[in-house]
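User: My instructor asked us to take a sequence, write out its structure as tokens, and then describe one feature of it. I'm not sure where to start. Here is the sequence I was given:
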Amino acid sequence: MADEPDNDNADTPDDAAASPAEAEAAEQPAEAAEQPADADAGEVTAPEAEASEAEVSEVGDQADEAAPAAAEAGEPAQELSSKARRRIQRSTHSGEARPARSPEERHAERAQERRQKAVRRRARRLSERAKSAERRAAASPPEPLPPVHTPVEGTRRVRQGVVVSDKAEKTITVRIDVARRHRRYEKIVRSSSTVHAHDENNEAHEGDVVRVIESRPLSRSKRWALVDVLERAR
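Assistant: Let's start with the prediction itself. The structure tokens for your sequence are:
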């Protein structure tokens, strides 16, 4: 009975000495088990972060590429001015700046550009003229339009009279006697008028009975022309 307490006392120090070691050994596997889990978690999350960054950059590049394309597509619809177009080109220009030029070089460049534009403009005009000529040749001939003022020739008056003078060249003076009944008093009223008529061959002489017809103005006073001589003077 006296030895048992000694054995118990001897075991207790061993247990006390072994308990810290066992505690450390128990803690070490737990930390080792936790470390691979953390390492695995770190290995999984890093590629995912890189992939997400790559996707974001690709989306940004696509947006940057789509923006100039949308601007270019929208230019004709908006009909921007030349100054606005130059401003957009300069803002999107990523190349190097041109070297400084002298005024003579700039003038020569402008002249060259004008010549090129003139050549393109001339070619375009020639093509438009050729196309218009082809269209006119292919089109049916237009219908003739009716005249605005249809030429109408009225009935010209014809009178008979006596030649009272043939002194002028190619001109005779004819006296036309008119006898008509008065509309109210029914009395015969006689009147006469003198006209100048054109006689191309000087056929009529003084005292002849002739027939004259109304014509266009031939001179200041001639509005009649000789038709024929009805009776010669005796």
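For the description part of your assignment, you could build on this observation: The radius of gyration is 63 Å. Try explaining in your own words what that tells you about the chain.
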